[in-house]
Design a protein that fits this description.
InterPro entries: Cyt_c_biogenesis_CcmB, Cyt_c_CcmB_bac. It is found in: Cell inner membrane. Keywords: Cell inner membrane, Cell membrane, Cytochrome c-type biogenesis, Membrane, Transmembrane, Transmembrane helix, Transport. It is a single chain. Helix 1 crosses helix 6 and helix 2 packs parallel to helix 6. Helices cover about 80% and strands about 0% of the residues.
Length: about 220
């Protein structure tokens, strides 16, 4: 499993630019918002956490279609299905490697992009924390879409269409927790705990559903 993790980590970084493409896309989305809404610093500060979360969500969707594509192309997907190690565990490790290579750099870059949105230190810290906690759920959800579309020649758009509606609860509670940290009357802990619960829930459901989809695709 350790060898699989580092193998997938290298493949995720090399394929299509890996983390660099995601961070650049993330930067592009956040950077163009001030040009659209104008130079109102108070407005940028108010909508900043939501924009950063939306940018991170869209950037995280970029490479999901490649989660199982390399194994499909070189035939190692059949070996994954026949090996003694449970397929669910293999999918979980691949998801963790993919998150480390593509989504973790987005979390690290979020404080810099928060400055573009005129966010204060509390908002930036809360956004980074909620992204760190919630972004793995996006990867686990995306694994299901990637497994469903792995046999399709151009499944990237289909993966995004399948995954995006399922990630809405993660986006809602991620943004809610961030705003709760900034606004004093709103409690920060309840939405953060719900966000953690969503990540743990999809950490169980996502790999299991992806493994089932991979077996059905092979059949």
């Amino acid at each position: 499993m350790t060898a699989l993790f580092f193998r997938d980590l290298k493949l995720s970084i090399r394929a299509g630019g890996g983390a660099l493409i995601g961070v650049l896309f993330f930067l592009t989305i956040v950077a163009v918002i001030p040009f659209g809404v104008g130079p109102d610093l108070k407005l940028l500060s108010r909508i900043g956490p939501a924009i950063v979360w939306i940018g991170a969500l869209l950037a995280a969707l970029l490479g999901l279609d490649r989660l199982f594509q390399a194994e499909r192309d070189d035939g190692s997907l059949d070996l994954m299905l026949m090996q003694e190690t449970p397929l669910v565990l293999t999918v979980l490790v691949k998801c963790l490697a993919h998150w480390t290579a593509t989504s973790l750099p987005l979390v690290i870059a979020s404080p810099l992009l928060g400055l573009f949105m005129n966010m204060d230190e509390t908002a930036i810290g809360a956004t980074m924390l909620t992204l760190l906690v919630g972004s793995p759920a996006i990867t686990f959800i995306g694994a299901v879409g990637a497994a469903v579309a792995v046999a399709l020649p151009r499944g990237g758009l289909l993966v995004s269409i399948l995954v995006l509606p399922l990630t809405i609860p993660v986006l809602i509670f991620g943004v809610s927790a961030t705003y709760a940290a900034v606004e004093d009357p709103a409690p920060f802990l309840p939405p953060l705990l719900i966000l953690i619960a969503l990540t743990l829930f999809f950490a169980v459901i996502g790999p299991a559903a992806a493994a089932l989809a991979l077996r059905n695709t092979a059949d």
